[in-house]
Amino acid sequence: MAAPFLIGLLLFASGATAAGDDGAMELPHLQLPGIADSGLGHGSDAPLPPQGQLMHIMFTAGCGSFAALVTATPNASDVFQQRLVAGGAGAGGLTVFCPDDKAVVAFEPTFGALADSDRLDVLLHHATAGRYVRAQLAAFDWVAVRTLAANRSQSITIRDDGDTVWLWTSWQGGAAKVIKTVSEEEAPLALAVYVVDAVLLPGHLRQNLDGGYFAWLHMVIPVWVGLCWALSAMVGVIIGFLLMLGAMSRWI
């Protein structure tokens, strides 16, 4: 009688263990700053810290690659953190133009080859001091807003054409556009987040990446000035040619 009882007990115990293992299986989850085990989908009642909320917003909005770069760069995440909480020390609001995953993945090889200071500038160039909600951007028509990049001359020029918000940075060919308004958080967070379709580069970094004399010339001389010079030169040549023909006709 003891042997069948022991066999049954072992079978029951193994079944319970298997059920416990199945219940413990979980999908990989996202780790957010300041939370030891903060996977998406976990039913925790503990509120995320401000930086964790920002990372959560960006990850779920489709720009998790950019959020991961910010998280992995302490100096960048610290600057973002200081401005997140309304009324906090160094606060004042934060607007983030978060490039989508497709844009960041395409730029990652270049980003990885940059110096640490340039990486930091790239990340901070996607944020501005102050919370600009969508209604405010509607009034922006070629308005330059200073970014958080270390070089204080770096700015983003914003234009709302009525349908789309466009972003230009110094000397960057083309423009990025806002493809989604993700968040306009109220107090205690002073935060606005927009997803954009391109990585925004500071002017000095664009010059370094392009390299060469023409990159320097492009940075020093705006395109419209170069076009005016070229047009003036062409007009001067034509006038000189006509004057020469007039002088020759008088001698003949």
From TrEMBL:
It comes from the Eukaryota. GO terms for cellular component: plasma membrane; side of membrane. Residues 50-200 form the FAS1 domain. The chain crosses the membrane at residues 217-245. Residues 1-18 form the signal peptide. It is a lipid-anchor; GPI-anchor. Keywords: Cell membrane, Glycoprotein, GPI-anchor, Lipoprotein, Membrane, Signal, Transmembrane, Transmembrane helix. SMART domains: FAS1. It is found in: Cell membrane. InterPro entries: FAS1_dom_sf, FAS1_domain, FLA_A. PROSITE patterns: FAS1 (PS50213). One of its GO terms (biological process) is plant-type secondary cell wall biogenesis. This is FAS1 domain-containing protein. It comes from Lolium multiflorum. The lineage of its organism: Eukaryota, Viridiplantae, Streptophyta, Embryophyta, Tracheophyta.
